[in-house]
Amino acid sequence: MFLRGRQIRKEARQMLRIDPSLTEDQQKAVAARGASVSVSAAAGSGKTKVLVERLISIITDEEHPSPADRLVVVTFTNDAASEVRSRLSIALSKQLLEDPDNAWLREQQTHLKSAHISTIHSFCFDLLRQQFAALDISAGFRVMDDTEEAELRRKTAEEVAEAMVQAAETDPEAAARLRCLSDAFCGSDDTPLIELIEALYEIVSNVPFGEQMLPRFAAEAASGKMLADAMQEFCGQIAECETVYAQAQALFDSVVAEKRAEKEAKAAKSGRAVKPYEPPKSYDVLCAESRGIGRVLEAAKTGDPERTCKALDALSFGRFSPGSDARARQSGALRAFGKQMAANLQKKWRIPLEYAQQDCARHAELLTALIQPLHEFSERLDAHKRERSALGFGDAMRCTLHLLAEQAADGSIRKTALAETLSQQYSYIMIDEFQDADGQQDLIFRMLSHGGDAQHYGDNLFFVGDSKQCIYRFRNANPRIFYEALQSGAPYRTAMLTENTRIDLNRNFRSAQEVVDFVNCIFSGLMSERVGEVDYDERQALVRGAAYPDGDRPAELLLFEEAEDNPQTEPDLVAARIRMHLDLGTPVKDRETGVQRPCKPGDFMILLRKKSKLEAFASALTRAEIPVCSVVQQSYLNAPEILLLLAILRAADNPLLDVPVAAAMLSPMMGFTLDEVTQIRLSGERRGLYRSMLHITQTPESASPELTVKCTHFLQFLESMRLCAAMETPEQLIRRIYLCTDFLGLMQMTEGGEQKKANLRALVTYARNFEENRGGGLSAFLRYIDAMISRSQDLDGGGIPAVSEDVVQIKTIHGSKGLEAPFVILADASTGFSTADRRKMYQFHADKGLGFRLQDPESLTRGSSLAFMAISAQNIRESVSEELRLLYVALTRARERLILPISLKGIAAKAKQWAEIQAAGGAAGKLLAGSAGSHADWLLMPLIRNQAGELLRRTLGIEVEKDPGLPQIRMVTEVIAPPDAPAQETAAHTSVQAAPPPTVERHLLEEQCAWQYESAGAHLTAKYGVSELAKSDDISAPLRRPLFVRENHGRLSGAERGTALHTFLQYANFAAAAQDLSAEIAHVRRRGRLTEKQAEAVRASNIAAFFTSPLYARTAAAKQIWREKKFIVRLSDLHLSGSLAQLGADYAGTEGMLTGIMDLVLEEADGLVLVDYKTDRVQNGAQLLEQYTEQIRLYAGALRLITGKRIKECFLYSLHLNQTVPVAI
User: What SS3 state is found at 859?
Assistant: First the structure.
């Protein structure tokens, strides 16, 4: 009793220290100790806040505080890890402000830097670096990117294939193995086998101790287990058909029985003999089909594929007309649904069943034959990685698991000694987004947990996740792991836990009540363990936790007819809907102030399943004059600017390749026309472009003088790039191309210039990383790029900062994870789910095995095996479940409103069937969700009988009445007709059509053109350069000639010579130049800062006089010097006077900026000295003062402002006069 009281007091003290703003369930999650805790955190439930509060609570626990460096916090993104660390640091700082003398808190804030708060990959790599000796890897290993690893895997697979061929020449067993694999998978070459070896390695390397899988699968195929499992899968599917047919027949039986009873009652009442009631022929058809399904099920239960195949052959379907009776219609809908299921099984499973025995035997042979090449591939790949001192991302968990666990001969898994040590070292292990964990990650956490093993979690784990938001199956995420952890957790009883416990956080602090109700309505009727892999019960349902001002926020269901010849129908509809809300000023709650305001573009988020239509929606918004975020749909390596640069690089690598040479010639930098390229190519007969241009330059009379000059310039440029390619890295070569051709400047002038420049800069980074990690020069870099292109791989484009946050966001649903918006528009919902995975050569499932599509060695035709079909069926179910979870993620991004455009194309017949089946109730209705082919299907299924779906039912011609027992929601339905169609009914019984183009009145145009800004500062330039203010003459900025063209016209222009002198003075070593000017000019030239022509201009100048001048002596003696010092200051801060006084008055109190670059600044003991070089050809210093005094005063004012130091002197140094000219400031 005393201990119990002590425990209660301890819990009370813990609760008092917890943030009182947390909900009761959140407080439970923070305070729970003594065992592992699984927290089911629904969308918007504040899980990150709970995680941080729990960390603070553990660190500051009065009785058992834990040091920060003994905590492990694992997130699934680097951004999430940074956020947790930042929030924890802020929370500790707040506590230190309240208790500044707390030495423990100060110590923990110091330890926070070394705390294990990271992604799972970072945690594993850190552990591997500590334990490198145990795994025979380099302590200084680097992490390969996916592209390098993919290329290395392909190279290794090709080596293995070649080794198999060589071994087959001398080893009969190896020859038999190769023949077995070639007959099953290869056609004209061994590429399919190479790809299969790579794919199988990817599979086994992502499964705990996956190297044992193939032998196990081979044994299962040989023992008959594979066949039994496949027959069990088929049996389950035909049993579902039988369930549907049984319900259909039961309904029709009731109709027939009622009709028969009516006729018998009528006969009894009349006393006359009446002909017995004869059921309609459709009833006989239904009974016959139902019996046939029963025979197939009975045969399947025997596990005999031959008998099952015969039963399928005997299955036939007749004509069926249910009649007008409500129950008969429901029976007909159920029969049609069951027939569709059965016919699909008959079509796809018939042949695999016929060849099941042979295929299973062949699987055993193939799986056995694959064991040796897969083992050799793994060994060779590891060896290649050791040679490169590198590991891939996948190696992080595989190698970590081998450090922490070992598999015994009987297949059991136990902890290693290192795992035992680490499990004692870590006080608490917290995992965020645990629904995205895979089997390897789950086993790692079990091994690291205190008291945990392969079957049980230890007592110091804290999982946070939401199984309904697991959308990364393509990354091996397994929602069953977290769901089963939740199911095995005991209900919360007290903060001092005695067993692993489950806590549910279902209060949503993001969404308004209308959104919460709509989400619950949709998923309570759809999501189950069968479809979604989560049972959407009261523990999973959302509960509103956010407060919103009173208002009506209905979901908007927009039903539209697709125009056959207009793929922009839906994008234009979405743009019109956003424009409508913007024009109406639909109120939304401001997140910062909490008060309502009119909506703006940044409040809208459009979500799509795929990237392919991002650009179409962005274009529609642009046409509607709605600001939209930058959308990068095109792949990076197919971007025009990247293709052009790669063409120039390929031409430099091999000028005999006509395609890249032609692409380079036709670029805006080179200036050739298409006619000129054609003329050059035709002039050379069979010589190709490069040799044809050589011929033209050697025989000038063969072409026009203009074309000859162009060819000469291009060949000289190409030759210089080829020479540089031999001596420089790809990064240096790319930078040189940018410099010589003004590539970046030209791209800046085109549409999307900022993104193109960012992409081009990104290629410099990729080239640098390639050279640092692999090397090999330009040819190797181009092979690396070509290998990626051949494998349909890509690189990430360059990032650019957002110009404005107030733009409509267009995201994929995957990309929206963790985001939210007041308005969420789920677009393209009618597009069908992807079936690409079903066309692969194999199907794999960790629990079901490995099945192949096998090739007939004689006809070379390929067909699905029974194992392939069975495993594919399981994968399809899981894929469909993930699509449903993806829909959940999309809908839960909304804070206030959901807008759901849905195409009416092909939906009416399906919806009528769904409505009848739902009205019938029973087990068949629960199978409907699994038959959906799109997100639109799922949205409509729960709505067609909802009370809010009246117009939806009328539009689709559904006769079934609404179901008053379904959840109530707020929804507005509108039918949107094409512009040229008759008016359609809407929820408000008015016509809503796409608006026609507005008629532009002349007086409106004149009025708008004459409109003037009211702000007095609207006419002011936002940013000035110093030269623009200092000079009174008009300044033009013509496009700079490409450097390679400028240099081939003989002498440089005056401006270009000035640029050369300034460049030398910027990059030269002054001390070295004073000793040997020619040598330093050559040195700067070798570094690529000057071209040869520029270097000649510097040599021919009088620059040597500068290094013997008194000004240089002061420069050499200065405490510090700055060259090319850039600045940007507010004009209003300069307090302009003199000739610039009016400008200063105009900009007073504004944010107008002044930018510039100071040539040279010296710091001496008593202040700063400002020097500006001038190359003007003047007669005397007075001319320079007249022209540049105001410029120097601006420089001096800016320098004083940014340094806060005294400006003691200013000089103009004339490189033409060799004279230092003082400037009075």
Answer: coil
pTM summary value: 0.76
- 369/177 Cα distance (integer angstroms): 5
The more confident residue out of 480 and 772 is: 480
H helix or E strand, kind and range, residue 1168 = strand 1167-1174
> Which CATH fold topology does 543-629+811-832+889-976 show?
Rossmann fold (3.40.50)
What average pLDDT does the chain have?
A: 86
DSSP one-letter code for 450: T
Tokens (6 digits) for 10 = 């301890």
Reading the block at residue 287, the tokens are 């009974």
* Cα gap 1083→1094, rounded to integer Å: 13
Q: Longest C-alpha distance within the chain, in Å?
A: 138
DSSP at 628: B
pLDDT tens digits, residue range 557-616?
Answer: 999 988 766 778 899 999 999 999 999 999 999 988 889 999 999 999 999 998 888 889
- Quickly state the pLDDT bin for 835 (edges 50, 70, 90): confident
Torsion of CA 751, 752, 754, 758, to 10 degrees: -120
Q: How far apart are CA 1147 and CA 1149, in angstroms?
A: 6
Q: Which ranges of 935-1036 does DSSP label H, i.e. alpha helix?
A: 935-940, 950-956, 1002-1010, 1026-1030
Record the tokens describing residue 972, joined without a space. 């507005």
Q: What angle is formed at CA 936 by the lines to CA 934 and CA 941, rounded to 5 degrees?
A: 105
Residue 427: Cβ within 10 Å count: 18
- For domain 636-791, say whether CATH 1.10.486.10 is its number: yes
Burial 1035-1044 (b: 16+ CB within 10 A, else e): eeeeeeebbb
Mean pLDDT of 481-490: 91
In this prediction, residue 993 carries a pLDDT of: 33
Four-CA torsion 609, 614, 616, 618, nearest 10 degrees: 130
**Within 10 Å of residue 854's Cβ, how many Cβ atoms?**
24
What is the rounded CA–CA span in Å between residue 660 and residue 665?
9
For the record, the structure tokens of 651 come out as 């031409």
Same fold, 543-629+811-832+889-976 and 636-791: no
CATH 3.90.320.10, domain 1023-1050+1109-1223, yes or no: yes
The better pLDDT of the pair 983, 1027 is held by: 1027
- pLDDT mean over 1067-1075: 91
Name the helix (H) or strand (E) containing 903: strand 894-903
Quickly count: other Cβ atoms within 10 Å of residue 441's Cβ: 25
- The pLDDT of residue 1088 is 66
Give the tokens for residue 896: 């206030």
Q: Which fold does the domain 225-264+277-360 belong to in CATH?
A: Four Helix Bundle (Hemerythrin (Met), subunit A) (1.20.120)
Residue 874: CA count within 13 A, CB half-sphere:
20
Contact 290, 252 (CB under 8 A): no
Rounded percentage of the chain residues whose pLDDT exceeds 70: 91
E runs forming strands in 77-152: 116-119, 142-143
- How far, rounded to the nearest angstrom, does the alpha carbon of residue 154 sit from its chain's CA centroid? 25
Please, what is the Cα angle at 962 between 959 and 964, to 5 degrees?
160
Contact between 82 and 126 under an 8 Å Cβ cutoff? The reply is no
Architecture of domain 14-141+408-505: 3-Layer(aba) Sandwich (3.40)
Domain segments of the chain as ranges: 14-141+408-505, 225-264+277-360, 543-629+811-832+889-976, 636-791, 1023-1050+1109-1223
* 430 touches 423 (CB < 8 A): no
- As a whole number of angstroms, the distance between CA 43 and CA 32 comes to 22
